[in-house]
Amino acid sequence: MSSQEIVHCENLSVELGGVSVLSDLSFSVIEGDFLAIVGPNGGGKTTLLRVLLGLQKPSAGSVRVFGSEPGRHPGKVGYVPQRLFFDRDFPLCVSDAVLMGRIAMKTPFRHYNRADRQAVEESLRTVGLSSLANRRIGALSGGELQRVILARALAGNPELLLLDEPTASIDPSMKTTIYDLLDHLRKRMTIVLVTHDTGMVSRFVSRVICLNCRMVLREPPAASAGGSVVEEAYPYQVDHLLHHAPGRPESGAIS
Predict the structure, then answer these.
(1) Dihedral sign (CA 88, 101, 5, 7)
(2) Which of 213, 160, 205, 159 lies closest to 179, judged by CA?
(3) Strand, coil or helix: 249
(4) CA 48, CA 183: separation in Å to the nearest integer?
(5) Which of 98, 6, 17 is nearest to 52 (CA)?
C-alpha cells in the first residue's frame, strides 16, 4: 500500500457541556494502519470516533478524513458501533440488515440492484454468516449480531473501518473470531479500533493510542510501556500485564 494519509488531527479538542472530553490531540492515520485506541471509560474514545464520522464538531483544532472535513466521504468510511438498539420483533432478516450498508452509495429514490445484492453476499461470506442470510436478526446470538453489524459496514466496501468496542458483549471464543477477521481485513483497508481488550492489542495492531482526554501514542505497540507513560495516560493505580503473543518475541506491557 502507499503511504497516503487517511486521517489527520491537529490540536483537536472537544468540549461537551463545558467539560473537556478531548484535549489537544494531534495524530495521523496512514493507509494500511491498524490503530487501536485504548483508555478508561469516559476517556473520550467514542467521542473521537464521532468526530471522525462527522457526528461531533471539534471545539478547537482541525480534522481531515480523506483530505476533507469528516462526513464528506461516507462511502469510504465503514462504522461498527458497540451496540445496535432495535426491536427484536421487527421482521428484518440478516441480508436486508446488511443491505443498509449500501445506503451511502445510493442517490435518493434509487433502488438496490444486483451489485448491491452481490456486495451483501460477499460481506456475509467474509464474516461467515452466509447460512443465516434469511434469518431474522431478532433470533441471532450476540456474537452473530455483532458479525451482522460488521458485515453491514463491509457491504459499502469502505477504505477506512472504524470500530467501537466490537467485542464488548460477546463470549471469549467469538472475540478471537472477530479479531482474526480484522487481521484478515487489514490487508485491504485501514482500521481504527476502540477497545478495552488490551490482551489482544499487541498481537494484531500496528500502533496504539492511549487516550484519557489527552493522548499518549505508543509506536510500535511491542515497545515497553514504561511506568511514566502509563501514569501520564492513567492518573490512578494500574497493573501491568506482560503480553506474550504466540510465535512472537516477548511483547511490551500494556496496562
Answers:
(1) negative
(2) 205
(3) coil
(4) 22
(5) 6
Q: Average pLDDT by consecutive 10-residue portion of the chain (255 residues)?
A: 84 94 94 91 92 96 96 93 78 94 78 92 95 94 89 95 87 80 92 83 82 73 47 52 44 39
- Report which of 205, 207, 252, 214 is spatially closest to residue 234, judged by C-alpha positions: 214
DSSP 79-115: EE-S-----TTS--BHHHHHHGGGGGG--TTPPP-HH
d(CA 244, CA 134): 41
The dihedral through the CA atoms of 155, 158, 164, 165 has a sign that is: positive
Q: Which helix (H) or strand (E) covers residue 233, if one does?
A: helix 227-233
Radius of gyration of the chain (CA): 19
pLDDT of residue 39: 85
Closest CA relative to residue 129, chosen from 155, 164, 167: 155
> Which neighbouring-strand residues pair with 29?
7
- Beta strands, E only, 17-159: 19-30, 34-38, 60-65, 77-80
Contact (CB, 8 A) for 190 and 159:
yes
CA dihedral 199, 219, 71, 129 (to 10 degrees): -30
HSE of 25, CA atoms in CB hemisphere, 13 A: 38
What domains can be seen in the chain, in order of their start residue? 5-244 (3.40.50.300)
Distance between CA atoms of 198 and 140, rounded to whole angstroms? 27
Cis upstream peptide for 158 (omega within 30°): no
Q: What angle do CA 180, 42, 193 make, to 5 degrees?
A: 20
Max Cα-Cα span within the chain: 57
Residue written as grid cell 472477530:
178
